[in-house]
Amino acid sequence: MSMAVARSITPRAQRVAVVTAGFGQNAVLTMVTTFILVYLIEYAHVSAAGIAVVTGIITATKVFDAFADPVMGSLIDLTRTRWGKFRPYILFSAVPVAVLSALLFSAPDATEPAKLVFFGVCYFLWGIAYTMCDVPYWGLIGSAFPDSRERAGVISNVRAFGAISLGIVTLGMPWIARWLSFGDDTTAFGWSLAAALVAVVGMGLYLLAFFRTRERATSALSERLTMRVLFGTLVKNTPLLMVLLGSILGFGRLIVQAGGAVFVVIAYGDEGYFTLIGAAIIVGMVLSSFLAPLLLRLATGKSLIIWSTAAAVVLYLAMYVVGFANLIAVLVFIFLTGLTLGIFVVVQTTMIADAVDDVERRTGVRNDGISFSTLTFVSKIMNALAVLAFGIFIVAAGYGADSAVTPEMQAIVWASITLVPAISCLISIVPFAFYRIGLPARGEVLAKAGSQA
């Protein structure tokens, strides 16, 4: 019966399910990360001191989540069910993520300390639940699509439609909240309804990754995995470690997203301009995400990520030289760096998947759960470093809510979103240059052929 069900899911249906699931999942993530502070300040009326507490809660939770990712990955690799090792977590994490996402936008009508406690508990639980849904999702892609070319296409579509989802939610969420407020003004209740709607629809789409996919069979050796074997294999996976190190060193790629809203206020006096900058990044990422599989047919992942990163270095340096006075020029440069970022996120994921295949070939152990958990781990570390680096420059510039903007202040902040990414990307090329996927030795191929004969 299970074989008949598995055969009924065509490769195309499986690809559509995974991409759609990623679209829904990213909608929920974008809603929480982009609008939670807006909701707490404007509609839950949390004070400046309270927002400082909220920031501390978010930072502490992200650090905890980052180090929880490998633990989650190892638990996945040790899981054995009739559904596989990834799909059960996808099934049982969807509802908690949806419920907790809605609760984050439903602060109680109580004192501020009570609101902060409510937020802290919900956000911590949300972080755990989201880790449980995110790590198995990326591992499932590596398992469900063993062919590297097909997998690269799926990853590119996931990244591209994820960027589209980000744009739709970023632009549409305030309008949905206003519409559901059923009046002329947007209300806290309207935001609560909007959050619940996006959470239910998003995680409903995410469940397609459970119902419309199948995992590859597990090798006999992988059936006897232990925690020691898992982490030992991870440490020995040099190609994977090079991708992780190169990614972390390239954290500067994310500084524009982390500090762009503040930068436009300092440079142009209008935070609304960040919509243009965000759109330029998203369009660039979407286009290059779709283009990446075609480029991977012409070049290896290693060469593509090195040359696209080198191009990013040149673009950031040129952007610094041109300056920010001409907004149109800035948008063109941001779009072009978005192209390099889209290539990076696609190729980075495919390189990790290829490294997992390589270590399985060499050791007989497939540890895609813990290996793909490093993808989410690195993403969180990169975001944290980008925020930290931008914050250091803001402090050095002396910028505050009531500060008068000076040319020196503008110059310091401009350097933070141009020179820092350029230096960061340049350094990140070094580990990627040492990424090598081994091929079977000729003797190994001949021995295998002889045994089959």
Mean pLDDT figure: 85
Examine the coordinates and then state which fold CATH places here, giving the name of the CATH topology of the largest domain.
Growth Hormone, Chain: A
Low-confidence stretches: 1-6, 439-453
Number of strands: 0
Protein name: MFS transporter
Main location: membrane
Subcellular location: Cell membrane
Membrane topology: Multi-pass membrane protein
Structural description of this entry:
With 453 residues, the chain is mostly helical. It has two domains: 15-213, Growth Hormone, Chain: A; 231-435, Growth Hormone, Chain: A (Up-down Bundle), CATH 1.20.1250. 80% of the residues lie in helices and 0% in strands. It has 18 helices and no strands. The protein has helices at residues 2-8, 11-43, 48-77, 87-104, 112-144, 148-179, 188-206, 208-211, 227-236, 238-249, 255-268, 274-298, 301-322, 327-363, 368-397, 407-416, 419-433, 442-452. α14 (327-363) runs antiparallel to α15 and α15 (368-397) runs antiparallel to α16. The chain is globular and about 60 Å long. The model is unreliable at 1-6 and 439-453 (pLDDT under 50).
